[in-house]
Design brief:
InterPro entries: Glutathione_S-Trfase, Glutathione_S-Trfase_N, Thioredoxin-like_sf. The chain has 4 helices and 4 strands. By secondary structure, it is of the alpha+beta class.
Length: about 120
């Protein structure tokens, strides 16, 4: 069975988003903890090999493919491993796909800018 690697922090909502999708589609994963308080995500090695903007999570697929940005990771995982999961509408259903993209855009641009900093403050202090 396929196992993907997630570089992130298990308490971070962006990493939890990816973990939730993996769980929903039955995909095994391992977490490589990135110590945010120590600034591991800002080291030259991390910036050069994982994510050029110094944030989490980063997915490394078993074939070496690297994807970052949690929502992009989730869409990638569903497209590759969870096509029949029902988590994403088919692009051939233009109306359903458009409504999904609308809701995703609202979540990202309206809800997340307020919820993410609050959650981060409550979890990481």
């Amino acid at each position: 069975m396929t196992t993907v690697t997630i570089h992130g922090h298990a308490f971070a909502t962006c990493t939890q988003r990816v973990m939730a999708v993996c769980n929903e589609i039955g995909l095994k994963y391992q977490i490589v903890t990135v110590d945010l308080k120590k600034g591991e995500q800002k080291t030259p090695e991390y910036l050069a090999t994982k994510q050029p903007f110094g944030v989490i999570p980063v997915l490394v697929d078993e074939d070496g493919t690297k994807i970052y940005e949690s929502r992009a990771i989730c869409r990638y995982l569903v497209a590759k491993y969870g096509k029949d999961s029902g988590l994403l509408p088919s692009q051939s259903d233009v109306k359903a796909y458009g409504l999904f993209e609308q809701a995703a855009s609202i979540e990202y641009s309206t809800f997340d800018p307020y919820a993410a900093p609050l959650t981060s403050e409550l979890v990481f202090g």
